Amino acid sequence: MRTRLKIAGALSALGIAAAGLIGGFEGLRTTAYLDPVGVPTVCYGETRGVEMGDRHTAEECRAMLGDALIEFEQDMRACLDHPDEIPDGPYTAFLSLAYNIGTGAFCRSTLVRLANAGDLRGACNQLPRWNRAGGRVLQGLVNRRAKEKEICLAGLDGPVTVPGETSATDSSPLTEPPAVTPDAAAGTDQEASPLAWLGVAGMALLVLALVVLLVRRFLK
Description:
Layout: E1 6-7, E2 10-11, H1 13-26, E3 29-34, E4 40-43, H2 58-78, H3 88-101, H4 103-107, H5 110-116, H6 120-124, E5 132-133, E6 136-137, H7 139-157, H8 203-206, H9 210-218
Antiparallel strand pairs: 1-2, 3-4, 5-6
């Protein structure tokens, strides 16, 4: 099973960035709730097999997210002709979209057709189109797609130095991403830092990868 999210059983730099990006967008809710279109959802946007009343610990949710990302990555790769030729930025943005809309819709999209034709810039520009749920535009999805597009396009152009940005060897850039959750149900519980589980030794070295630099810039 080919994956770019793990190396020797541990999260790669790309896996850390993907978990940070997607976990930040989805937000952590340990008690099942109804999403904007009425689907039972729990943890980091997990909908598969969820029933109202389900509860999980934060640790269980983090494990579920890690497993889910690998599964979604495999399905995403299956409909991309040359997935390992896609730079980390677009690869992460595409995975975020696939996780959000489902790999069925992702694989049938114009975005995938353009990516397979070699037009990655055109594929990135398709991201803002996916801003609806239940037939209506949701501001949370507009925000999410805008961030995904920025990361996608920046990954094609290479890293950009932001004025005042600290060195990549400074403290981890993968803490406290914004939890952008479109119209989430009121009264659900959310953990303030969905990335607390990423405190692994040596992560500062991993974040030297391009995609980590991109996520640090665009999740501020």
